[in-house]
Amino acid sequence: MLKVVVVILMLAVICSLFSGLFFLIKDGGKTNRVVNSLAVRVALSVLLLLVIVISLWQGSLVLNPTP
What we know:
The protein is mainly α and 67 residues long. It is built from two helices and no strands. It has helices spanning 2-27, 33-58. The chain is elongated and about 45 Å long. The model has no long low-confidence stretch (mean pLDDT 91).
């Protein structure tokens, strides 16, 4: 379940990245859609980081001690 949440958040960040690129090319930076896309991408990245940190803290996610 946790892996699914992490993958969905990562895909949402990537979609936001490409939507910002599309808006930048299409609008030429004249509208606020690029800024809104950046805000969504930052919020999703912070949420992804919080999910990972909280799951590490709770023990749901374990780091690999040997590479």
